[in-house]
Amino acid sequence: MDSLLIKGGVPLHGEVAVSGSKNAVLPILAATLLTAEPCRIRRVPHLSDVRFMGRILESLGAKVSADGDGLRVQAKKIQGVGNYSLIRKMRGSVCILGPLLGRLREATVALPGGCVIGARPINLHLKGFAALGAKVTIEGGYVHTAARRLRGAELFLGGRAGSTVLGTANVMMAAALAEGVTIIESAACEPEIVDLAHFLSAMGAQITGAGSPILTITGVPELHGAEHEVIPDRIEAATYAIAAAATGGEVTITGARADHLHAVLDKLGEAGVQVRRQGTALRVRRGARLRPVDVTTLPYAGFPTDVQAQMMALMTLAPGISILTERIFESRFMHVSELARLGADIEIEGPSAIVKGGRPLSGAEVMASDLRASAALVVAGLAARGTTRVSRVYHIDRGYENLDGKLRKLGARIQRVSES
Ligand code: EPZ
Q1: What is the pLDDT of residue 215?
Q2: Domain 2-19+232-418 indexed as CATH 3.30.450.20
Q3: Catalytic residue positions?
Q4: Atom 13 in ligand 1: which residue has the minimum CA distance?
């Protein structure tokens, strides 16, 4: 397993390019199962989660090959049973259910199971499939869904924490090949859903309302191949903006979509971080001094849960009290105990973390637990005095393309070390 060795205290300077979005490309790759024709997906980030999704598509019978800055996928003949050991390892793979149901009228996929940030149920996904006329059974760790005919329906897809991103993706993909009109109420509005809708429309799907809570899909008999460039990763962009602010540097983030980052940029501004938009670039620098802020994570366009941990790392540096409240997942504070090892003073009160910020951080050995918690530890290590070792870096490789390389280019003293 690799670790990252960081000698902190160096302000980041220079330019960093944002890669394609992990959370857009995973459902888009799944959507290629909806047609027998070849699809070309561009700006695909080099991530372990993406490689994994490629292996899952191949296990179903699709052909997947590298093609310039992306992938070429053709699911000419596929079978609808997902490989248990593969599917279990990456819960994002749950989004193959919808396309398999749409294309084959049946699918058997291992239950994705939970992870450190929460139970990650899929009851809303299954509610959507049932609304389209599919029979859903769960047995032996697998979910099996089948439908003689898929019929459009009007359904409410909101759950305990509001909308579901991959649940919306799954139902939208199944509905694309159903008979008649499907209306999804309380649909997820994330940019990744809009990007998926754009790809599906390029394949011939008829979708309106993407990006709004009311999504309408008029089913068509079949879909054709298409080409699509994935949107830039808004969470990666936010992470680099926060790293720039945390180290007191000045970084230009190129290829970002500022319109996907309103809540984050607004909060960073409140915290005293200066963000200037220059076309598709964001120029980020810390102002005179960081200010404490309160953050509550919400479905889009609210503050994204995937930036909560990184924001918490920044707030440990802001003199005063910041309260970060996590409303999407039930246990997304794994980074708190590790940040405390770097000297942060954080108390958890139910869904909130109370950060007493302003004390300088000092380097230590810390352990990554999940993708965004790991990013938070790297941000904190970059700001801390002395050396920080972040172990279990495979968590980071799931969602950040060449993180240490990109940070080195910005002047960070960061090395990847292999540990037996
Ligand atoms: C997507 O996960 C993202 N993953 C997550 O990013 C992100 O944190 C999450 O959306 C929220 O924005 C991908 O896109 C691959 P949800 P998803 O269904 O779709 C509850 C990262 O770090 N829920 O929107 O699985 C659920 O428990 C990852 O990149 C149900 O109750 O999340 C949670 O509390 C982490 N029943 C809330 O909804 C369901 O059937 C939001 O989950 C489905 C979800």
Answers
A1: 98
A2: no
A3: 115
A4: 23
